[in-house]
Amino acid sequence: MAADSRTTDHARRKAVNVTVSQDLLASARKHNLNLSKLLEESLITELKHRWQDQWLDDNKAAIDAYNERVAKHGVFSDGLRQF
Predict the structure, then answer these.
(1) Could you give the angle at the alpha carbon of 50 between the alpha carbons of 4 and 60, nearest 5°?
(2) What does the DSSP 8-state code read for residue 13?
(3) 6-11 long-range CB contacts below 8 Å, 24 or more apart?
(4) pLDDT tens digits along 39-77
(5) Is 78 a member of any domain?
(6) 45 touches 38 (CB < 8 A)
(7) Cβ 3 vs Cβ 44: under 8 Å
């Protein structure tokens, strides 16, 4: 999923209500921040982290088994490496 396709597709946008502190909102406005864009970018970043964490959790057994196999038997290129 490309981040740019999610942030530029106006037809698929949905208005939502959020609550932020008044001071934070005032400061954001003072710095001309686009809150919708900032929220979308932050959500995409956070979701990527969570998807990565979920993938690692889902594949933990396979990763552990592979690492154990490499520790025990090495990798196919062990005899070929010159570094």
Answers:
(1) 130
(2) -
(3) 6/40, 6/44, 7/37, 7/40, 7/41, 7/44
(4) 999 999 999 999 999 999 999 999 999 999 999 998 888
(5) no
(6) no
(7) yes
Residue 39: which domain range?
3-73
Whole-angstrom distance, CA of residue 20 vs CA of residue 14: 19
Structure tokens at 5: 């396709």
Q: What does pLDDT average to over the chain?
A: 89
- What end-to-end distance do the CA atoms of the chain give, in Å? 38
The number of distinct structural domains making up the chain is 1
CA–CA dist 50, 44 (Å, integer): 10
Orientation angle between helical segments 35-58 and 60-73, nearest 10 degrees: 50
Q: Is residue 67 part of a domain?
A: yes
Tokens 């939502």: give the residue: 16
- pLDDT above 60 (res 8): no
What is the percentage of the chain residues whose pLDDT exceeds 70? 86
